[in-house]
Design a protein that fits this description.
By secondary structure, this protein is of the alpha+beta class. Among the domains are: about 40 residues; about 90 residues, Beta-lactamase Inhibitory Protein, Chain:B, domain 1 (2-Layer Sandwich), CATH 3.30.1450. The chain has six helices and five strands; from the N terminus they run αβααββββααα. The termini are far apart. Keywords: Cell outer membrane, Lipoprotein, Membrane, Palmitate, Signal. Part of the Bam complex. Pfam families: BamE (PF04355). It comes from Comamonas jiangduensis.
């Protein structure tokens, strides 16, 4: 009888395990359908410093390292092995907008700026314009109210204009700063 009890226990465990696995697969399918309707939040990632074409144009051969740093900011990469160059790398990844990446290398001879080379940098206005262009469809609400919608709100009273007219006028002359 002891052997039969073990055999029954094994069969019961096998059946319960099989039923649990079957339940997990059916839950997984419904979860996948629900997850396709939900879009997760993706964090905006900005690395490095943005360098505009105006900043690159402001660089002049012979400038000191400090002057270059004042124009472009602190470089993202400086190397002990390549002390004669600074790397300015900028990347931005935003949800709904194509990722951007730009690189500029600034070369020095001693303490003096020699040249800069890298990607073509956009102007500040061009860069700002690219920030607001999502690649997906976004529904923009209508921002105009109809006459019937405006009629729901009370008309502003003229009393507000009267109180503004009665407000005390600021003092036009000031006392001297030092006593005589």
């Amino acid at each position: 009888m002891h052997v039969q009890a073990r055999c029954r226990l094994r069969v019961a465990l096998t059946l319960s395990l099989a039923s649990l696995l079957a339940a997990c697969s059916s839950i997984g399918e419904s979860t996948r359908n629900a997850m396709s309707a939900i879009t997760p939040y993706k964090v905006e990632v900005v690395q490095g410093n943005f360098v505009s074409s105006e900043q690159v144009q402001a660089l002049q051969p012979g400038m000191s390292r400090q002057q270059v740093r004042e124009i472009l900011g602190t470089p993202l990469v400086t190397s002990v092995f390549h002390a004669d160059r600074w790397e300015y790398v900028f990347t931005i990844k935003r949800q709904g907008v194509q990722a951007q990446s730009r690189k500029l290398t600034v070369f020095f001879e001693g303490e003096r700026f020699v040249r800069a080379e890298g990607d073509e940098m956009p102007s500040e206005a061009e860069f700002v314009a690219t920030l607001g262009k999502p690649t997906g469809k976004i529904k923009v609400p209508e921002l105009q109210a109809t006459e019937s919608q405006l009629a729901k709100f009370p008309v502003a009273k003229k009393a507000a204009d009267d109180t503004a007219a009665q407000a005390p006028q600021p003092q036009r002359s000031y006392p001297p700063l030092e006593s005589r």
